[in-house]
């Protein structure tokens, strides 16, 4: 086992999972380097909503107050037919603050975590460093890295792939084998200012609203305090970027309240995404680990992606800190792989798949959907509503229970 002063972790990817893991470890005095191929934080419209498993880790990383200060607190979520009539709704106005979903677009969250990481003496982010290969032996793992000026070999006690859905670390371990499936549909995520929206929404509108339609399956949500709105919707799998870009104004007219013309809004981002449900065969191979999107993917309806990713990060932090501090041996990392995979199979995959399919059949959502039946029950039964809200905690797992008893 490495002595504490020799213990170090290399993390590939300065996305949300890599940065948060680095911050958690660095706050314990662990030497950590984050290797990032880009020269700046990602600005794509991706994660924005975070539930309890994320805010729990923000608290442990010492950033929760700063995150809250910038965040928008969601007042609830609704499921609606495409004409905006209400099917069911969860209101969170009265929920305890730690159980409310908060929204902070990723392009604001990343520099926030990064600013805390920059203050840690044992942490460093290496920008414009692209990992091209890896290796390991009994004592170390290493990566080969290309920078604009040089090629390098960097090594550490452990290496963690937080390098996203196309993970180079995962491909080095398993080739193209990433079991699961890709949906026939694709989605388009837009960020937009719609100043007139509030004049057209029904009175029971909540900050997040899903709509049921096989053609569009839209989601409209306020994501920041200045009124920035995320409009996400479905598209045919075979369309090109240019075709989808050309169809965007008609799409908005089909489901955004008030049927706005392009002159009625300011489009900030437009990003199509292929969507997948996939899980790596192992999240540990020797000294190399996978977390978050590098380990598993799901469609983004319901915000399970990074919720599961941050739960990985919190678990892996406890495992690595346990080894560093002598409270665990490295077999705890096999537990990490086994349990985080099971959480994906039991919770993240079925729930996120259900969240998407629920938006496809206007009749089924009214008549046969057990989840919607529960939401309706929660509308009048406070205790049951509380139980439902706590349900998201099931994605978490406390690995300190596997620390050595002595
Ligand atoms: C439209 C949309 C909306 C979403 N909304 C939500 C939501 O509301 N809530 C939620 O929980 N989740 C949501 N998700 C999912 C969430 O965005 C992802 O789960 C999350 O961004 C994954 O974070 P990550 O750190 O694992 O990977 P990434 O954010 O993909 O970061 C990976 C990093 O690794 C770097 N990298 C890659 N390869 C290399 C290499 N070879 N060398 C060096 N660096 C490399 C990349 O440049 C990148 O910076 C959404 C996703 C989408 C598409």
UniProtKB/TrEMBL annotation:
Keywords: FAD, Flavoprotein, Membrane, NAD, Oxidoreductase, Transmembrane, Transmembrane helix. InterPro entries: FAD-bd, FAD/NAD-bd_sf, PheA/TfdB_FAD_monoxygenase. It comes from the Eukaryota. The keyword NAD applies. The keyword Transmembrane applies. The chain crosses the membrane at residues 7-26. Coiled coil: none annotated. Residues 7-342 form the FAD-binding domain. It holds the Pfam family FAD_binding_3. One of its GO terms (molecular function) is FAD binding. This is FAD-binding domain-containing protein. It comes from Saxophila tyrrhenica. The lineage of its organism: Eukaryota, Fungi, Dikarya, Ascomycota, Pezizomycotina.
């Amino acid at each position: 086992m490495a002595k504490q002063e020799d213990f170090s972790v290399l993390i590939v990817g300065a996305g949300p999972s890599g940065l948060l893991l680095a911050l958690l470890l660095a706050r314990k005095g662990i030497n950590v380097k984050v290797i990032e191929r880009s020269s700046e934080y990602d600005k794509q419209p991706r994660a924005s909503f975070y539930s309890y498993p994320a805010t729990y880790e923000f608290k442990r990383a010492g950033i929760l107050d700063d995150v809250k200060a910038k965040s928008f607190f969601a007042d609830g979520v609704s499921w609606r037919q495409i004409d905006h009539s209400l099917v069911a709704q969860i209101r969170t106005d009265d929920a305890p603050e730690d159980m409310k979903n908060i929204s902070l677009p990723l392009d604001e969250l990343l520099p926030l975590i990064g600013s805390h990481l920059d203050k840690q003496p044992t942490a460093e982010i290496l920008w414009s460093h692209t990992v091209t290969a890896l290796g390991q032996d009994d004592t170390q793992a290493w990566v080969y890295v290309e920078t604009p000026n040089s090629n390098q070999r960097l090594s550490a006690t452990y290496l963690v792939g937080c390098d996203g859905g196309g993970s180079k670390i995962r491909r080095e371990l398993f080739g193209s084998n990433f079991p699961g499936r890709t949906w026939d549909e694709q989605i388009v995520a837009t960020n937009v200012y719609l100043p007139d929206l509030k004049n057209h929404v029904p009175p029971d509108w909540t900050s997040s609203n899903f709509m049921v339609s096989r053609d569009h399956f839209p989601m409209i949500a306020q994501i920041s305090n200045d009124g920035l709105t995320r409009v996400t919707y479905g598209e045919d799998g075979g369309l090109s970027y240019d075709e989808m870009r050309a169809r965007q104004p008609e799409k908005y007219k089909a489901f955004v309240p008030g049927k706005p013309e392009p002159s009625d809004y300011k489009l900030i981002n437009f990003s199509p995404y292929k969507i997948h449900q996939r899980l790596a065969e192992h999240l540990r191979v020797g000294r190399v680990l996978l977390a978050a999107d590098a380990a598993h993917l799901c469609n983004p309806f319901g915000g399970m992606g990074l919720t599961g990713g941050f739960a990985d990060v919190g678990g892996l932090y406890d495992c690595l800190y346990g080894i560093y501090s002598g409270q665990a041996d490295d077999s705890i990392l096999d537990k990490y792989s086994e349990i985080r995979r099971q959480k994906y199979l039991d919770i993240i995959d079925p729930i996120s798949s259900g969240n998407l399919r629920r938006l496809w059949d206007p009749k089924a959502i009214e008549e046969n959907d057990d989840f919607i039946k529960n939401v309706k029950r929660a509308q009048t039964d406070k205790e049951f509503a509380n139980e439902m809200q706590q349900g998201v905690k099931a994605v978490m797992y406390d690995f300190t229970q596997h620390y050595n008893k002595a």
